[in-house]
């Protein structure tokens, strides 16, 4: 009986961790995707920004990067390394292209970054298959 209770408690603890982790990962990447949506999505939009708007976009990208850096170790440990690494690389390239004023590459990189984010949200969502 004692071993059954131990097994049930262990199973419950693992289940709670899996579900809370899924909520955390989804929350982080949904918030990030919302922030990415506020950025200029096309090269034309980025080219037509005023200098103050370009500075605001640069600050937003830096804030997203800072938020990522604060969560990166945890995300790398609970998510497939390839997905987390892909997100990190695309975020860095998006920021770099924007700051270099290469808006065509920036828009392409931003679209790829959003695609990675959407895939992570979908893959790590709370579904019966992901929990079990």
Quick synopsis:
The protein is mostly helical. The protein has six helices and no strands.
Word description of this protein:
The chain has helices at 2-37, 43-47, 51-78, 81-99, 103-123, 128-131. Helix 4 (81-99) packs antiparallel against helix 5 (103-123). With 132 residues, it is mainly alpha-helical. The protein has one domain (2-131): Four Helix Bundle (Hemerythrin (Met), subunit A), CATH 1.20.120. The model has no long low-confidence stretch (mean pLDDT 92). 86% of the residues lie in helices and 0% in strands.
How many angstroms separate the termini? 25 Å
SS strand fraction: under 5%
Number of domains: 1
CATH class: Mainly Alpha
CATH topology: Four Helix Bundle (Hemerythrin (Met), subunit A)
Number of H/I helices: 6
Tell me the CATH architecture.
Answer: Up-down Bundle
Radius of gyration: 19 Å
Helical amount among residues, as a percent range? over 70%
Largest sheet: none
Task: Show unreliable segments.
Answer: none
- The helix-and-strand class reads mainly alpha
Looking at how many chains there are and whether they match, the oligomeric state comes to single chain
Shape: elongated
Number of strands: 0
What is the element string, with H for helices and E for strands?
Answer: HHHHHH
Average of the residue pLDDT scores: 92
């Amino acid at each position: 009986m004692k071993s059954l209770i131990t097994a049930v408690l262990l199973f419950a603890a693992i289940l709670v961790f899996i579900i809370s982790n899924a909520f955390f990962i989804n929350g982080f990447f949904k918030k990030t995707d919302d922030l990415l949506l506020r950025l200029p999505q096309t090269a034309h939009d980025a080219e037509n920004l005023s200098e103050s708007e370009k500075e605001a976009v640069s600050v937003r990208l830096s804030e997203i990067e800072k938020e990522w850096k604060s969560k990166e170790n945890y995300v790398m440990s609970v998510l497939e390394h390839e997905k987390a690494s892909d997100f990190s690389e695309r975020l860095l390239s998006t920021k770099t292209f924007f700051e270099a004023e290469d808006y065509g590459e920036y828009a392409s990189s931003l679209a790829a970054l959003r695609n990675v984010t959407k895939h992570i949200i979908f893959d790590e969502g709370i579904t019966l298959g992901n929990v079990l």
